[in-house]
Design brief:
The chain is an alpha+beta fold. The chain has eight helices and twelve strands. The strands form two sheets. A six-stranded mixed beta sheet has the order 5-3-4-2-1-6, with helices on one face. A six-stranded mixed beta sheet has the order 7-8-9-11-10-12. A hairpin with a 5-residue loop joins strand 3 and strand 4 (about 115). The longest helix has 20 residues, at about 280-300.
């Protein structure tokens, strides 16, 4: 005879609102007090949200390509953000940062300024909604305190709802993480040690001026140019194949287009560069390649057999980061 299930106590369930239920392990009791495991209770909604991945979370924002680059490629960078309707009176500025100390989602400085971390793990499939929720909570956090991780409501605003669509997005790439503190020279020993560790791990990176989403980086054996593009994927691959087959896909002697990867719905071509080729040296040939790419993108002629082979090689070397 099957064992009769005992009714689970529900008295405690009303003590915590849905938006306040913290995230716990899937097999742990749900904090709402229902008596069920988290994965069968409030965790079910969270798991459902994770599966609904927004393919291009930064689409519609000025500088979408740079948003993707700062999320996936650039170790240390900041960008000033402009809110619709202006800033609250007690918030002098809002700054996007690739990474914050202790992986904080956001930080409210002593002077009221807000730093919003971009490279943190998020709780849903929509990075834009998660960041918007963190930003809203940061604006009302007590100055001098970090913002804890949270779970954005499914119907909450996205960055596209909070940021001014007409304001430019101009990232500043830094050589280190001194932007974490207002006065790095007077940092405590603990903060100074943390900065030293973070700086040692950062890969030297530079933004290529005038080319949205294009970033040079220094690697141990060879340097690279990684260029986040917003062109439709099939059209871009056709254009790259035309250039590759024609022998014009490189950026000069000792460089070569090695493939591409996808990140947040955009395609990112990658070039190998000689170790002697710095960011300044790659700027002119990258701009010239951009002109060749624009012409190739404008062509609607069928691919030749050689171009199809080149396209197949590029496609076979393509990976997806997110």
């Amino acid at each position: 005879m099957a064992k009769k299930r005992r009714p689970q106590p529900r008295a405690a369930a009303v003590q915590i609102k849905d938006a306040e239920v913290p995230v716990v392990g899937a097999r742990e009791p749900c904090p709402c007090g229902s008596g069920r495991r988290y994965k069968a209770c409030h965790g079910r909604e969270a798991a459902h949200a994770v599966t609904e991945l927004v393919r291009r979370p930064f689409e519609g924002l000025p500088g979408e390509c740079d948003w993707v680059a700062l999320r996936e490629l650039v170790p240390a960078a900041t960008a000033e953000l402009t809110l619709k309707g202006g800033l609250p009176e007690d918030v002098p500025s809002v700054t996007l940062a690739t990474v914050l100390p202790m992986a904080w989602p956001a930080l409210r400085r002593d002077n009221g300024a807000v730093l919003l971390g971009l490279q943190n793990d998020t709780s849903s499939g929509d990075i834009s909604r998660d960041l918007a929720d963190t930003l809203q909570r940061a604006l009302t956090t007590e100055p001098g305190h970090p913002v804890a991780a949270g779970r954005a409501p499914a119907d909450g605003p996205r960055l596209q709802d909070l940021l001014d669509p007409d304001a430019p997005f101009e990232p500043t790439v830094h050589t280190g993480f001194e932007f974490w503190v207002e006065n790095a020279e007077n940092a405590t020993a603990e903060v100074a040690a943390s900065l030293e560790r973070a700086n040692a791990a950062a890969i030297p990176t530079a933004r290529i001026p005038g080319l949205e989403g294009a970033y040079w980086c220094e690697a141990p054996e060879k340097n690279h140019l990684r260029w986040v593009t917003a062109h439709p994927e099939e059209q871009l691959l056709d254009a790259l194949a035309r250039l590759h087959a024609a022998g014009t896909s490189s950026l000069g002697e000792g460089t070569r287009l090695v493939g591409s990867f996808r990140a947040h719905g955009l395609v990112v071509p990658v070039w190998d560069l000689p170790s002697s080729m710095g960011a300044d040296e790659v700027t002119t040939p990258a701009a010239a390649f951009g002109e060749r790419l624009a012409k190739a993108l404008a062509s609607d002629a069928p691919l030749t057999a050689e171009e199809r082979r080149a396209r197949g090689g590029l496609t076979n070397r393509q990976i997806t980061l997110s």
